[in-house]
Amino acid sequence: MAGLLVMLIAGYGSYRYWTFQVEQPLALTGATLFTLEKGQYAHHFLHKLQQQGLIDSQWPGKVLLRLSPGLSDVKAGTYEFRPGMSLRDTLSLLSSGREKLFEIRLVEGLRWQDWRAQMQAHPYLRADSLNDDFVAYLAPPGESLEGWLMPDTYHFTAGTNAEIIVVQAYERMQTFLQEKWQQRKVGLPYENPYEALILASIVEKETGLAEERPRIAAVFVNRLERNMRLQTDPTVIYGMGEAFDGNIRRGDLKTPTPYNTYVIKGLPPTPISMVSGAAIDAVLNPLDTDELYFVSRNDGSHVFSSSLADHNAAVRQYQLKK
């Protein structure tokens, strides 16, 4: 009887020790990323944990896997372990397949080449295929992705092909633009949604204060309706490409490019940046004004004018300081 009692006590002690080993928090000092490669199994995971000093021994984990075989069905991927998680918690996470979601924030006002460089620089995205062949495959109007991708924060798992994000952003913009086109103000000087997108990209680049978008859009609409050149600096900069060094000179305003709206009449051939939904709303529902000019106050806001004389006065006050 005494021997049986000793065995029971020893068995209970071993059970308590095993329970402690699988339920105690791992020695994590902060959020830690862990990648389980394809072809690796739960025992590979236990080996890695021991190598990294997060567990003392693999046997408690092996016992756990025998008692809970569902935990053996781990999925390859990159996971995030947080302080307080136990061995059981980590195996449960790997068997659930709930990988760590990374994010990339793609903002309006930047160019396609800026977005592409941002995606190519992200350590958890595969973006080597974002080339001209990919753009040609999508076949966007204007043969360019400029303006065609919806700005937003996009989430993805490690190793995702950036093409997936681009296609998602492209489809979202197409849907949004078509919906807003159906709700546009009557009589606007655009023949199709793409022309509205082009103007929206100009409004995006010219706007410093969000509430001014519909007013800035109205100025450009009024100029288009009067067959006046848009004369907007961001189009000059875009047309200059890599030659732009941060300054626009008088000669740049006179140098012809397909985008220089001081030289060409009407809209440039493509958008000049990625476009927010607010900018699209602005060009499809501009304010009712007779204003034809605006000049920066150098604080993000603008002075708007209906006459050239008033505009020149504002230029002297805010730009020439006279």
| Helix and strand pattern | HEHHEHEHEHEEHHHHHHEEH
Distance between the termini: 107 Å
- Amount of beta strand: 5-15%
The helical percent reads: 40-55%
User: Shape, please?
Assistant: elongated
Q: Looking across the biggest beta sheet, what order are the strands in?
A: 1-2
Calculate Rg over CA atoms: 30 Å
Number of domains: 3
Uncertain residue ranges:
2-12
Helix tally equals 13
Number of strands: 8
State the major sheet: 2 strands, antiparallel
Average of the residue pLDDT scores: 91
Class from helix and strand fractions: mainly alpha
Catalytic activity: a peptidoglycan chain = a peptidoglycan chain with N-acetyl-1,6-anhydromuramyl-[peptide] at the reducing end + a peptidoglycan chain with N-acetylglucosamine at the non-reducing end
Site (Important for catalytic activity): 206
GO molecular function, one term: lytic endotransglycosylase activity
GO biological process, one term: peptidoglycan biosynthetic process
What does this structure look like?
The protein is mainly α. It has three domains: 27-37 and 61-100, no CATH class; 103-178, no CATH class; 185-318, no CATH class. The protein is built from 13 helices and eight strands. The strands form four sheets. A two-stranded antiparallel sheet has the order 1-2. Strands 3-5 form a two-stranded antiparallel ribbon. A two-stranded parallel ribbon has the order 4-6. The longest helix has 22 residues, at 2-23. It starts with a helix and ends with a helix. It is an enzyme of class 4 (lyase). InterPro entries: MLTG-like (IPR003770). The record marks 206 as: Important for catalytic activity. Belongs to the transglycosylase MltG family.
